[in-house]
């Protein structure tokens, strides 16, 4: 049953549909305790009740599709969304590969270093992803083949808080799906 | 309702310099790692004597009650060791006055024939020798801690005149190795139950106003998608899964609408979506980042973060959209707004000399205070009684959750799961 849910859930996600979708039921387990109000001899009795929590495990994430050899990562300066000239060749190589097959789909995944809040970093990573998407678009890649998304600071490439590590984390990855 | 945030307990005024108010360890279980620190003024001295029969019970009720009261910053624990009492005993007032207590909680725990536990207590004013009332609860073993939190709520309300928020729940996220988990725990961080486990990040949990649903952002499909999750059944609904990133869910106070950040039209922009599903309505249009929306408690305003002025600042606008007004001015980096349920306070994170610190603004006058001296604070969230803030920070390289009083004087580290703990959201009062 749980597997079935996972399949349905994954299917719903892969459909990439825009509107809110009601997922099928997951197993329902009532863990709430039975609570009785009690009027004690010396108390003005009061019921204690709490609902339980049913856990959901979403399992492994989806597989990555075939991808071209060569660099797929563009690195950025602190607080910057500008694609530096040295990464133009990365963009050009990837653009050629994506355009070669109209069925290819890429996600451009923006990332930030660890400084600051998670949601604001998500928005910063989105700007990086969209900068790369824009550069690919200028080279003729169809919007329908690209999706710019952000992981913010959630998925650092390198652990560590020094500038070397953080520079490796301020990036946009072109990921084939 | 206007509430004085720092009431003076005129009947009990005690300008005590108690130094480090550390929880006595004797009656405390090993896994019970509450760590209260700070100097508080005007704290009510209270003794919570060991409940008769709690040695044989799976939870030490008195220690839980005492830790709750201490964490609130409004109480100072007086050592109650060595005195055997229960709810039926009339305390020797002189003894407790001698110990410096103004009030006393005593009680008992007994196993019932059906396996449940009968928890009873009584609260005494030992200054006036007055019985302030008591209650009894028949609970399953799993609800013993909840019974203790209910006792703390009773005591808090009797002695401060305000509703306690101890029997509420906090959601938070842990990262342990490659595994992310969303938890629902008691307000003290204990009794955590897993709501969601995933190999990909989970961020920004947000309780629905009725406490039944958690909205959050899950990256399980390798992009940020907003879900709403019924915590009792585990049933999940997609709220926003549009092209691009979907994030920062916030419930309107009536629970009918969620404000979210979507990048489907380019950039991170604010939208409102019916909680029942439907097409998103744009709330604001800018060429900059707009994110982290939160509704004011009256539902009339949305506070949010925008870098439209060149750096992230907190703004407010009508909840249906419209022209925005800047709210924060100090620092060039102000994010993660949280409005107190009583509408008086705005908690947020501000970068000061490269350090991210929890700040508090009194909305009426705009006065700002810094509440912490830590360097990596995140994600503030108010208790439903507006008297404590839970937030994430780092201690010795580990991510932990802390609570603080609104004057920043009393802080407590919440216990919880192993690994890094982050993204707290304090749920509403339980019905």
Q: Which homologous superfamily in CATH is the superfamily of the largest domain in chain B?
A: TolB, C-terminal domain
Class from secondary-structure proportions of chain A: alpha+beta
Shape type of chain A: globular
CATH architecture classification name of the largest domain in chain A: 2-Layer Sandwich
Q: Rg of chain A from C-alpha positions? A: 23 Å
Structural class of chain B: mainly beta
Number of helices of chain B: 3
Task: Classify the beta-strand content of chain A into a percent band.
Answer: 5-15%
Q: Please tally the β strands of chain B and state the result.
A: 30
Textual characterization of the structure:
The complex is a heterodimer of chains A (177) and B (431). With 177 residues, chain A is α+β, with helices and mostly antiparallel strands. Chain A has two domains: 1-61, no CATH class; 73-176, 2-Layer Sandwich (60s Ribosomal Protein L30, Chain: A), CATH 3.30.1330. Chain A contains four helices and five strands, in the order αββαβαβαβ. Chain A has a four-stranded mixed beta sheet with strand order 2-5-3-4. Chain A is globular and about 50 Å long. The two termini of chain A are 27 Å apart. Chain B contains three helices and 30 strands. Chain B has helices at 61-71, 93-98, 144-160; strands at residues 35-38, 44-48, 75-78, 103-111, 117-125, 130-139, 169-176, 179-186, 193-198, 202-207, 213-218, 225-230, 236-240, 246-251, 257-262, 269-274, 281-282, 290-295, 301-306, 313-318, 325-326, 334-339, 345-352, 355-362, 368-370, 378-382, 388-395, 398-405, 410-413, 420-426. In chain B, a hairpin with a 6-residue loop joins β11 (213-218) and β12. In chain B, α1 (61-71) packs across α3. The radius of gyration of chain B is 22 Å and the shape is globular. Chains A and B meet through α1, β1, α3 and β4 of A and β5, β6, α3, β9 and β13 of B. β1 of chain A pairs parallel with β9 (193-198) of chain B, so a sheet runs across the interface.
């Amino acid at each position: 049953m749980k597997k079935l849910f996972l399949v349905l859930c994954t299917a719903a996600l892969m459909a990439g549909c825009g509107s809110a979708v009601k997922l099928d039921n997951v197993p329902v387990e009532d863990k709430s305790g039975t609570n009785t109000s009690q009027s004690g001899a010396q108390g003005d009795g009061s019921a204690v009740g709490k609902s339980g929590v049913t856990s959901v495990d979403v399992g492994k994430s989806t597989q990555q599709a075939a991808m071209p050899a060569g660099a797929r990562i563009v690195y950025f300066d602190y607080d910057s969304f500008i694609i530096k000239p040295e990464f133009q060749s990365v963009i050009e190589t990837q653009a050629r590969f994506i355009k070669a097959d109209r069925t290819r789909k890429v996600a451009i995944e923006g990332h930030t270093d660890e400084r600051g809040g998670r949601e604001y970093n998500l928005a910063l990573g989105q700007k990086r992803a969209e900068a790369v998407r824009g550069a690919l678009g200028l080279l003729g890649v169809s919007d329908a083949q690209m999706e710019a998304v952000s992981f913010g600071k959630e998925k650092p490439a390198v652990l560590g808080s020094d500038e070397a590590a953080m520079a490796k984390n301020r990036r946009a990855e072109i990921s084939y799906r | 309702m206007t509430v004085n945030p720092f009431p003076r307990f005129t009947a009990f005024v005690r300008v005590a310099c108690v130094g480090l108010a550390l929880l006595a360890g004797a009656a405390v279980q090993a896994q019970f790692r509450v760590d209260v620190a700070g100097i508080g003024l005007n704290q009510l001295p209270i003794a919570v004597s060991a409940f008769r029969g709690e040695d044989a019970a799976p939870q030490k009720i008195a220690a839980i009650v005492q830790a709750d009261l201490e964490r609130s910053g409004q109480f100072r624990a007086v050592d109650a060791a060595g005195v055997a009492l229960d709810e039926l005993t009339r305390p020797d007032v002189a003894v407790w006055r001698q110990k410096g207590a103004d009030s006393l909680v005593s009680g008992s725990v007994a196993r019932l024939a059906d396996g449940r536990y009968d928890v009873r207590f009584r609260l005494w004013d030992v200054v006036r020798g007055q019985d302030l009332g008591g209650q009894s609860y028949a609970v399953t073993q799993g609800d013993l801690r909840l019974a203790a939190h209910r006792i703390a709520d009773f005591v808090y309300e009797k002695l401060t005149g305000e509703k306690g928020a101890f029997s509420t729940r906090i959601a938070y996220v842990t990262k342990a190795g490659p595994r992310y988990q969303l938890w629902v725990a008691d307000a003290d961080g204990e009794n955590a139950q897993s709501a969601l486990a995933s190999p990909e990040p989970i961020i920004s949990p947000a309780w629905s106003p009725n406490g039944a649903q958690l909205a959050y952002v899950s990256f399980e499909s390798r992009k940020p998608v907003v879900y709403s999750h019924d915590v009792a059944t585990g049933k999940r609904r997609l709220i926003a899964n549009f092209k691009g990133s979907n994030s920062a869910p916030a419930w309107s106070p009536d629970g009918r609408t969620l404000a979210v950040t979507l990048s489907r039209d380019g950039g991170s922009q604010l939208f409102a979506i019916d909680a029942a599903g439907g097409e998103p309505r744009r709330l604001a249009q800018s060429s900059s980042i707009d994110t982290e929306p939160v509704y004011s408690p009256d539902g009339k305003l949305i506070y949010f973060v925008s870098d439209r002025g060149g750096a992230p600042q907190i703004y407010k606008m009508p909840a249906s959209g419209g022209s925005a007004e800047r709210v924060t001015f100090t620092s060039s980096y102000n994010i993660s707004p949280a409005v107190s349920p009583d509408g008086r306070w705005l908690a947020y994170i501000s970068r000061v000399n490269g350090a991210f610190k929890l700040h508090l603004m009194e909305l009426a006058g705009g006065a700002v205070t810094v509440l912490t001296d830590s360097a990596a604070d995140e994600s503030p969230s108010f208790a439903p009684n507006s008297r404590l803030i839970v937030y994430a920070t780092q201690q010795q390289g580990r991510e932990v959750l802390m609570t603080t009083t609104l004057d920043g004087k009393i802080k407590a580290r919440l216990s919880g799961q192993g690994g890094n703990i982050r993204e707290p959201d304090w749920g509403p009062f339980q019905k």
